[in-house]
Amino acid sequence: MQSKSSKAGREGKKKGSDSTKDACPCGSGKQSQECCTPYLNGTAVAPTAEALMRSRYTAYTRNDEAYLRATWDERTCPKECITHDDPTQWLGLEVKQHSTDGDTATVEFVARYKINGRAHKLQEVSRFVRYDGRWFYVSGVIN
Q1: What does DSSP say about strands 88-101 and 104-115: parallel, antiparallel, or unpaired?
Q2: CATH code of residue 83
Q3: pLDDT for 53-101, tens place per residue?
């Protein structure tokens, strides 16, 4: 996900809320503690580019700048702030398709959100690369 316009979250979630007992914001249908939280806490590494994409979405819902930077390829990571305290209300993530070819992958997704009550959607094809067994976000093309 790219910066500001692709920040992600879920309706009703507040920064700093205890989401470990809640459904994961990434839309997997799993509990957060059994999905993205271990990646964000550093107790596990996302095994696939899709899992990394979902965890980055969850990181946007939590304004977790450190995780977003740690999972962004250092060659393309922006210097400016990635997360923002704006009025964005993130409503959900749908992964449309994903493919892996060796140590590269793409994930196409749609993220829905509201700003000041007005609905928006972000559709992006994200590129990922794997270094030493870890996936990193490289860039995305917004459709």
Answers
A1: antiparallel
A2: 3.10.450.50
A3: 999 999 988 889 999 999 999 999 999 998 877 777 889 999 999 999 9
